[in-house]
Amino acid sequence: MPSASHTWTLDSIPDQSGRLAVVTGANSGIGQVTAEALARRGAHVVLACRSPQRGQAALDRLLAEAPGAHAEARPLDLASLASIHAFADGWDHDRLDLLVNNAGVAMVPFARTADGFESQFGINHLGTFALTGLMLSHLLASPDPRVVTVSSEGQRFARYDPDNLNAERRYRAMFAYLQSKRANLYFATELQRRADAAGLKLRSVAVAPGLTRTNVLTGGANGNRGRLYGALIRLLVRAAFRPTPEGAKTSLYAATVPDLPGGAYVVPDGPLQLRGEPVLRNQERAIHDTATARRLWELSEKLTGVPFRLSDDATYTAHPAQEA
Predict the structure, then answer these.
(1) pLDDT, position 283
(2) How far does CA 52 lie from the centroid of its chain?
(3) What whole-number percentage of the chain has pLDDT above 70?
(4) Which residue out of 160, 171, 177, 265 is catalytically annotated?
(5) For the chain, give me the number of helices (H) and strands (E)?
(6) Active site includes 177?
(7) Using CB atoms within 10 A of its CB, is residue 195 exposed (0-12), middle (13-18) or buried (19+)?
(8) Higher model confidence: residue 6 or residue 2?
(9) What is the average per-residue pLDDT within 194-219?
(10) What are the DSSP calls for 48-92, one per residue?
(11) Which of 283 and 65 is assigned the larger pLDDT?
(12) Is pTM, for the whole model, over 0.90?
């Protein structure tokens, strides 16, 4: 595995020929860079985007910049279980080698998804959970399946409240966002534990991108916050956040490094994980909090109605652990 002491660039990505990948939220930001880099290295990439128009525009840009690339765009709205089911039901490839769970929203005004979930918890975690579960049979048809889930360096500061995951009591945008990103890390590590218990080759990896220039704070629901908000956020992003390709490094590292261990958490190696080169970090409390991860998993299956069929006969029992 490459050493984090050396600069890892998009040119470090090994040949991806023959690999079939889905990248959610691939029409902009980190998702777009991830999809383009995978396609440039030979993968067949499915751009899974909420807006068919923006998805097609992203596909057109990709094919214009990388003639001969193998890519397609398909609609997927993680705020709708019906859309997630439609995406999975419409899968017509013989397998799926890589699923990059990138799409999400950040610090948006309070809203509910089509299924009644608080939008950040519903999109960032429950939508990701449901999509992975529904695509699991296709992943397990691959000889080397991998799932990459984009969390956030901010998850370390989450006040994880299992009784207020869905804004049952009150809503504060930042806390709801950080809590949903903590849920992403719980999900990714619990998926690996369950895959290991079932004796599967599946590798589940979580990543934190660091501070990155994307439109997540100004697009979508945040686009209605007014001109002053938009101007201030754009100024902050330009001054303090790093270019989008730098933020995509951890996702691409997690998706392509051949001998990366399942259950890894890939973060920037700089101060507070805000910038730097990809490195593995295993000291996060959430990684080892199996009890909370197990309860979140069981709740997520109940809320989404999507059970994970990891095997026909394997029974998974998490080891007791101290909760965060």
Answers:
(1) 85
(2) 20
(3) 83
(4) 177
(5) 12, 8
(6) yes
(7) buried
(8) 6
(9) 82
(10) EES-HHHHHHHHHHHHHHSTT-EEEEEE--TT-HHHHHHHHHT--
(11) 65
(12) no
